[in-house]
Amino acid sequence: MNPTRGALARTGQYLALGCYLVFLAFPLFWLLSTALKSPQELGSVDPSWLPRHPSPDSFTAAFGQQPLARSALNSLIVAGCAAAVSVAIAVPAAYAMVRYRSPVSKAATGWILVSQMFPFVLVIIPLFMVLKGLHLINSLTGLVLVYVVWNLPFALWMLQGYVRAVPASLEEAAAIDGCGRFRTLINVVLPLLTPGLVATVMFSFVTAWNEFFFALVLLKSPEKQTMSVILTHFIGAEGAADLGPLAAAAVMATLPSLLFFALLQRRLVSGIMSGAVKG
């Protein structure tokens, strides 16, 4: 291949990647810029890219108007518990569906696909009645159960691919050494599933953190509402938004997901390397 042509191709790839990163980062940049602007700048007909006089007044007003700290804690509890429970159920279930092929496992795979087609509005009424019978309306526990059920099909679908990638010969060798199925799953298969586990946890956490519809319907008390619901309180009855505090609250709602992703991204890379070595 011509070196000049190869250099031009790499330059084009980096340029395309840079444009894509700018496209992804611009909403967050504009959100942070809006949150740091003064009320006078927010009302200007000629908005600037950067705040001329950065001010934390919008953040102060946001925390003063709504219980952001409490709602963030509620979201953290719900998202963390939903992600942990979803993965804890999905790992052995995905292993069983891959290693024990039967009509039941095939039916479960079909259920995974069909369940993703149901819209939220279709299931909210029967779901509300079931949770009401269990006395879990206006309860973080009830919301966690809803998120676990909603995330579980995708978690199963994702982990099945990672389980299939684990060579069956490793399990056979462990069986020869006297390991049972459970011990083989924990000591042999689970370490090789690290990339899949991290990706599944990230998906489950972010989905539960950002979810709005179920939280709006099932949580009524302000002290139990999650961050996504509290954000709507910055919009008036006529649709007029308190732009500065809303942007500040949106920044606070975005940061935990970004930090969680940044934290687990390192584990994802290390898990891929570890899995490659062990495989």
Automatic annotation (TrEMBL):
Pfam families: BPD_transp_1
Predominant place of localization: membrane
Subcellular location: Cell membrane
Its membrane topology: Multi-pass membrane protein
UniProt domain ABC transmembrane type-1: residue ranges: 72-264
Transmembrane domains' residue ranges: 12-32, 76-98, 110-131, 143-163, 184-209, 246-264
Classification via SUPFAM superfamilies: MetI-like (SSF161098)
PROSITE patterns: ABC_TM1
Protein name: Carbohydrate ABC transporter permease
Protein source organism: Streptomyces ovatisporus
